[in-house]
Fold this protein.
Amino acid sequence: MKSNTFNVVNRGFSNIDAGPPDDDPGAPPPPAGAAGGVPETQRPRAKDVARLAGVSTATVSRVINSPLLVEPDTLLAVREAMAKLRYLPHGAARALRSHRSHMVGAVVPSFDYALYARTTSAMQAVLEPKGYSLVLAEHHYDLPSELRVTAQLISHAVDAFFFVGLAHDPTLFALLADYGRPYVLSWGVDPLRQHPSVGFDNRAATYEMTRYLVSLGHRRFGLLSARPEGNDRATERGIGVRSALAQAGLELDERCVRYGPIDLNAAAAMMRELLALDEPPTVVIGTNDVFAVGAMLACREAGVRIPEDLSITGVDNTDLGATQTPGLTSIRTPIVEIGQAAAQHLIARLEGRPVNLFQTLPFELVIRGSTAAPRSSAGIAALARSRTAPTR
Amino acid sequence: MKSNTFNVVNRGFSNIDAGPPDDDPGAPPPPAGAAGGVPETQRPRAKDVARLAGVSTATVSRVINSPLLVEPDTLLAVREAMAKLRYLPHGAARALRSHRSHMVGAVVPSFDYALYARTTSAMQAVLEPKGYSLVLAEHHYDLPSELRVTAQLISHAVDAFFFVGLAHDPTLFALLADYGRPYVLSWGVDPLRQHPSVGFDNRAATYEMTRYLVSLGHRRFGLLSARPEGNDRATERGIGVRSALAQAGLELDERCVRYGPIDLNAAAAMMRELLALDEPPTVVIGTNDVFAVGAMLACREAGVRIPEDLSITGVDNTDLGATQTPGLTSIRTPIVEIGQAAAQHLIARLEGRPVNLFQTLPFELVIRGSTAAPRSSAGIAALARSRTAPTR
DNA sequence: CTGTTAGCGCCTTCAT
DNA sequence: ATGAAGGCGCTAACAG
């Protein structure tokens, strides 16, 4: 849906050869395996395994939870019995008794933007081998919704939580405290050290980017950003831009700033507005790659050349940006590392091991073809460059 | 990591201003809220709510599960008590007693490829309002691993399952049957009607694409695909290409076929091999957009112009492909619709309502700038076009 | 090292 | 329309 707007040509073939509409209400061939409602099968219980192995249920439990306490022979016998019966312990009963479900919840803004999916994937890779499962929820940048889904996950006995961002409803923290659930915030690192967190310095990221652009000679900046309300990443990134400009004796003209949803079309629309200004910026900073690529689309459409007429930068260093022509200058943010570190953090907490409550991970400026000195001020840019060069 | 290889320039700033390494082992300020291991808080139980509302626990249970059976006044009183105590029912206890956890599991190949994340997101959007949570697992295209994580999810009391693809370990189905778990397969529709499934005709998709390319005048085809073992989508898409060619009296030269992981760099490497052939193809079909965009990267690098020198097509119609220059001709696959339909399907099954066990969704050819008639055979292409035109 | 016993928190009959 | 009581399957505590 999103992408269709970029079609160069769309002949609009549709539903070709997709076979006859085969949603037969009845069932010509008898309904398939495991069809009906809930078969309520007689699943094997620990008691069955115990009987088959000639031991007590307690021993079965020990084989599962502390195999070191069990005689090797018994261990083997029990394991054999478990395999024979295809026994899987009843998670709900375990959770009820042991106050541990071995499930970790990740509450993220959205999957439409691939970033969180990658972080989540990194978490899962760490959790799965340890026997933990990952339960997911999205809140679409809506704080009340975040609270609601978190409550649902607590109710589903999730042991520990991962959240994106530092800004959350205070009730959320109250809830987590009430139910004694450990959690990590992520993406940023809590400056007040009130909540465990793992992330990077969002402000420093755009600060460095802006400094680089100033050094190229840019003086008139545009900003395309997510709405900052309840979104500390967006807020911090905006501050980074403004403070770098301030330090260079410049200012961000608020007419060159647009806020909107993280969506290519929306970003393109925002960029069109900037291009229509009397005095458009010579560089546009997107607070992530989606904004930046959306801006590129608008420029292509308008015949604005990148980077000759306009420089564009993003944040996150996604494939989406990296594969554009020209490649998008961006910031590699440690999204995979955040997921890994967060998962390890939570496991450690759950297992009572000590952890670093605050972890700051590095980011990295990645310069590609979408940035260059502004056309109108090539002289200034050269000057600026020659002035910064000795500084390194 | 992936993307860094495409850097046009990478000055390699690294870890700028990320603050001091602040992983203080001790804790200067006293550790933050909900820090330690597992506080084992005294969470409110149904009994507490019952006492506060002056009713029995049975009534509390009814308020939650069948509010219609409860007197409005009592209902209100109980709800008030629940709110006051921030009571959340204990999911594990519920699941143990009621044989229903209200969790649905999605077992997908990977999140690195954004597609599955979007489908999953669509599922979550349907599930959440109904009080279901989504539990996720990845298997990275490894069937034994799929079996393992599924077992883990069954053990975690997941009620129903979503799987990607039609080809699975037979043991998987045995397990699901043993534990009476409903499931849907997805992406394709089971031709043998053995397993409930919702998807589209993968074979027809590439069949149509190939027909279109043949009609442009192409005779020499290349194919970039995921390894077909245990991956029915890849298998079917390959068959679609071959059968369309066969129908046109053509053949797929196996020297023009490369299999590899779904990864931009890998795809670029495969494309380089095709370009190095004595007689390279005039068109390359990627079985998804990642292969196609990877191929584009290799072409740019080699100075091969698209579509003048080579046409390229993908499948999935992702933003990644749509935003390339030129835009990637692709096939819009119904990934969001699959997620929605699958979630609705599973909920219906869990609630004992009747469902369509087999749903075929439409796909759509999206033609953009990456395809054109082959240079060497413009005449033939024109001819072909004029011949097909009256047919529609 | 292994068995016995009790109960986690809730839902579900069965009464009333 | 509401209450009383048993037990879901497992593990923790205690014996032996």
